[in-house]
Amino acid sequence: MSLLLRNALLLDVTTGEYAEGDLRCADGRVAETGRGLRAPDGTRVIDLAGAHVVPGLIDAHVHVTASTADLGRLGSMSPAYVAAHSARIMGGMLDRGFTTVRDCSGADFGLADAQAEGLIRGPRLLFCGKGLSQTGGHADLRGRGEHLNDDHPCCAGVGRVVDGADAVRAAARDELRKGADHIKVMASGGVASPTDRIDSTQFSVDELRAAVEEAEAANRYVAAHAYTARAVNRALDAGVRSIEHGNLIDDASVELFLRHDAYLVPTLVTYWALKQEGREFGLSESSWRKVDDVLDAGIVALERAARGGVRLAYGTDLLGGMHRHQNHEFRLRAEVQRPIDVLRSATIGAAELAGRAGELGTLAVGAHADLLVLDGDPLADIGVLADPAKHLRHVVQAGAVVSSANS
């Protein structure tokens, strides 16, 4: 299969500059770029008449199985039912321009294989399986009177409860056995968990290091859910590669990010959405009241990290019917960042985090042919990315047009 896009403005995300020319895709990759390219027989040719072309977007923090904000319900749902919802959620992400996503607990090898084989429409899926949580931690979704029943391997829940370094090590090995691209640990309390506090730290340092050691042994890495500076800093010292959320980091956190060459994945839009709509989509009243603890702090944390030179990746963490707000993260981040820097976090930054630099998030020859055709310049107006229904003309994934404005 071959596709030739003529007369485009092609964005080099690294330099932030456009080049006029053509781009040809073949066998799912970018085959060549330049002026006046020739189309081999059988090539589909689209004249873009000067439209802007950017790499396909990468959301580095999603939960494609989260059809509800009541995450505790997922474990009791039929996995087949959850998969059907996941297919719908993933299709929506693709139509919004996200050609790759990193799932941060819930998705498994079945969904990743189904997408890769073309059984469902959706972004390329980088998955971790189930997130690891201590008893009473962020992925322990039991109420106070409930007993543990989420350890079945086919359970559709987002987490598994493990205590002690040996148990963490065994669980990490099990997720890696099933093909996990990364390991997710819950290193602090959170909004959606019923029995913890946002300002708690979770897992001992030995437990965190056990997860890191197992991931590194498999040439993978650990992502850690953490909010407060205390939780973030101990996770970074333990060797995690990415901090998810990090709304309450401090200057010492910035220094540790730089020292360990780690990434921050802010998820500003989920707190905005949870405050507006969380209860409508299943968030409990007690969890909804936790949102205020992190809502306003997120933009301050992003500004502190960006100013300090921390590596950033784009993430959203949306749940239930709130997935539709995925692109609003662009507008929120643009309050403190330049549009090019926000776009970099959703392309080359997220690709580097995932260990896919040069393959994803770029229009370079040899990369996966994932790209967006836009009616407008996102570097001049972030709304071009924040409002895909108005500005997204085509989504190309693996060299094929998979979504178009008029389709």
Automatic annotation (TrEMBL):
Amidohydrolase-related domain residues: 53-389
Keyword Hydrolase: yes
One example GO MF annotation: hydrolase activity, acting on carbon-nitrogen (but not peptide) bonds
InterPro entries: Amidohydro-rel, Metal-dep_hydrolase_composite, Metal_Hydrolase, Metallo-dep_Hydrolase, OTAase-like
Superkingdom of origin organism: Bacteria
Entry keyword Flavoprotein: no
Protein name: Imidazolonepropionase-like amidohydrolase
Organism annotation: Nonomuraea fuscirosea
